[in-house]
Amino acid sequence: MKHKYSQEFRTLISSGDSLHDLLTNSSFSGTFEAWEQRKAFIANAIDKSGTFLDIGSGNGFLLRCLQEWADYDITPYGIDINEEYIRKAKELFPNQADNFAAVNIREISRIGEYLPDVYDFVYFSADWSQTEPNETDARLIKSLEQLVASGGRLIIGFYGDDVAVNQQNVNALVSAGARLDQTLYNPEGTNLVTVTGVE
Ligand SMILES: C[S@@+](CC[C@H](N)C(=O)[O-])C[C@H]1O[C@@H](n2cnc3c(N)ncnc32)[C@H](O)[C@@H]1O
């Protein structure tokens, strides 16, 4: 473990079984060290304290880790299509259970019926490893900007195993009309995130 974790977090991941559950219910099949290597750099996109919506949050473990990795306080929010993941996210954040809802990203325009409709940070990662993103994806990303508060950031994750393909997918989205301002590369992996400031 490279990071200096809180005692509460160390306790959370101290049992092998619970750590395994936390990772698999975040759709991750590797070790905690591999998870850390792949995801910790996302915290570099967080430049202030605030609310953070993870679209496709799984069980919320990424949010819980970002609370450890970031230099700022994060109030976690998440949506996921999988109700079981959302149940687990509510368990992980018992004091903020109402911050998680089973919502399909296709219905993101109705998020206000379940959760706030504006956040300081909105994070979304899609799997574009098989097909290059198109105009529909670009429109979706553009629409996510509306969920970002003034002065906030839209963060898009590109998780492919080839950094050149990830970069190509960023370019394809920009050509298709998405606004993706800045790219943060993972110094320890192939994945990257784009960060777009919203005024
Ligand atoms: C790879 S996991 C991402 C977990 C976490 N956000 C991260 O980046 O580490 C993708 C998540 O998206 C969820 N998902 C897939 N399709 C979705 C949809 N249409 N609407 C909302 N969530 C969806 C899956 O259930 C899964 O939990």
Report the portion of residues in β strands: 15-25%
What is the rounded distance between the termini? 37 Å
Shape, principal axes of CA atoms:
globular
Write out the distinct hetero groups bound to the structure. S-adenosylmethionine
- Helix count from the secondary structure assignment: 7
CATH topology description? Rossmann fold
- By CATH, the superfamily comes out as Vaccinia Virus protein VP39
**H and E string:** HHHEHEHEEHEHEE
Which sheet architecture does the biggest sheet show?
Answer: 7 strands, mixed
Radius of gyration, Cα only, in angstroms?
16 Å
Flag low-confidence runs: none
With strands numbered from the N-terminus, the spatial order across the biggest sheet is: 3-2-1-4-5-7-6
Q: What's the number of domains?
A: 1
Which CATH class is shown? Alpha Beta
User: Number of DSSP strands?
Assistant: 7
CATH architecture: 3-Layer(aba) Sandwich
Mean pLDDT: 96
Helix and strand content put the structural class at alpha/beta
Helix share, percent: 25-40%
